[in-house]
Amino acid sequence: MAKLASNSRAGKSKQSELKELRQAGKVPAVVYGFETENTSLSVDENEFIRVIREVGRNGVIDLEIAEGVTQVMVNDYQFDALKNQITHIDFIAINMQTEVTVEVQIELTGEAPGQKEGGVIEQPLFEVSVTAKPADIPETIEVDISELNIGDSIHVEDIRSKGNFVIENEDADALVIVSAPTEEPEEDENAEEQSVEVEATAQKNDAADEE
Question: What processes in GO biological process is this protein linked to (predicted)?
């Protein structure tokens, strides 16, 4: 389990104070949840990114706060694309023995034979809802497509035994489909010939009128 240090900050920081924090490479944050009072703090942005890369979006983090260390997950965070900067983080303190429900990404692995034959890989769902104890939540759920031919598909019911967790989506929800290639409509040669004949006739009539 990865550790992340934090510093306390005033609950109602001024905009100027928040701006100074961000300019110093820190991210304003708040932690709340299991046996934890709503607490304002800040963390180092680079350290936060490192930890998330290590444990994953749904991973458990040992957050070091003034009262000690508490296990948290990232409930939400805000990102400023223009500044390429994380601007705020919500940490939720968790009970490691209590199940939670989160969204887990579906990762396709392998290469489908149907794709080599011109089939098109369609992925209706990129995430599924998973319920499990925090330690059992997978970072991603891998779905092997290496045996799929054109017309084949994989549904939620096919991956329910993947791990020690429950997928909340319906059995019939499709995760991946190999569709037949779309055929381009054939050009109507007769219509093209008729068009040429009409154009030639029109040109002939125009020439006759000029005479």
Answer: translation
